[in-house]
């Protein structure tokens, strides 16, 4: 895993024209708002569910300033209660054209079920407005991600927050994994984010209707 460590991004290319266009549209690099947030932008690597770097020139995690500030609040709450823990972001704003690529990559799943894992590009994802973030918790002392019971983008019931009790009873998740997810939900919830039922790593900051009114669709 290649993590962009807080405060230094040596392996990243200088900001290119696409990232500059995000800045021009009012988005900010979240590590400029909070240099203690870690980033491992999975779709900018080949370590993702379809094994391709689809982000290409997008190498940093961007959000609208107000959303980035909410994320900073979540990270501050986390650090206050758990000084060794930091938020680690897997995905932030996601261009709409990439949403289509993700949607089509899962075409073995019928559209009605697929929506639990990837938002239908015909409707749009909150990521396309910078109003959703995918993340976990990194333990800086142990130098590892917390065990959440599945990898990022594990598309199945084991990743479903609403199935945690059932997974615990069947022995597929343990108490510690669920406790770790609860820490993430608690900090994100206090900062104003809402979890979804089907992915422990995904949090929204508003509804799609409000996002469409208030923020720009990133193409
Ligand atoms: C693809 C996955 N990381 C994700 O973010 N899914 C949600 C539902 C989305 O596409 O908005
Ligand atoms: Zn997401």
From TrEMBL:
Q: Which Pfam families match?
A: Peptidase_M15 (PF01427)
On the tree of life, the source organism's domain of life is Bacteria
SUPFAM superfamilies found in the cross-reference section: Hedgehog/DD-peptidase
Under which name does UniProt file this protein?
D-alanyl-D-alanine dipeptidase
Which Gene3D superfamilies does the entry mention?
Answer: 3.30.1380.10
Q: Report the family membership.
A: Belongs to the peptidase M15D family.
Keywords of the record, alphabetical order, are:
Cell wall biogenesis/degradation, Dipeptidase, Hydrolase, Metal-binding, Metalloprotease, Protease, Zinc
Q: Which one of the record's GO molecular function terms can you name? A: zinc ion binding
Tell me the residue numbers annotated for binding Zn(2+): 127, 134, 202
Instruction: Name the needed cofactors.
Output: Zn(2+)
């Amino acid at each position: 895993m290649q993590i962009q460590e807080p405060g230094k991004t040596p392996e990243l290319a200088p900001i290119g024209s696409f990232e500059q266009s995000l800045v021009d549209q009012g988005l900010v690099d979240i590590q400029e708002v909070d240099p203690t947030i870690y980033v491992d932008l999975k779709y900018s690597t080949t370590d993702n569910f379809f094994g391709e770097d689809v982000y290409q020139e997008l190498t940093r995690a961007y959000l609208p300033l107000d959303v980035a500030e909410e994320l900073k609040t979540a990270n501050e709450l986390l650090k206050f209660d758990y000084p060794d823990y930091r938020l680690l972001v897997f995905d932030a704003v996601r261009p709409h054209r990439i949403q289509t690529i993700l949607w089509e990559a899962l075409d073995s799943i019928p559209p009605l079920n697929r929506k639990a894992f990837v938002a239908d590009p015909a409707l749009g994802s909150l990521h396309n407005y910078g109003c959703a973030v995918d993340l976990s918790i990194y333990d800086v002392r142990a130098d590892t991600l917390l065990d959440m019971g599945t990898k990022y983008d594990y598309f199945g019931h084991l990743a479903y927050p609403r199935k945690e009790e059932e997974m615990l009873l069947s022995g597929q998740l343990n108490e510690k994994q669920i406790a770790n997810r609860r820490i993430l939900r608690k900090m994100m919830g206090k900062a104003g984010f809402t979890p979804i039922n089907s992915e422990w790593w995904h949090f929204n900051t508003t509804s799609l209707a409000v996002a469409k009114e208030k923020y720009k669709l990133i193409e």
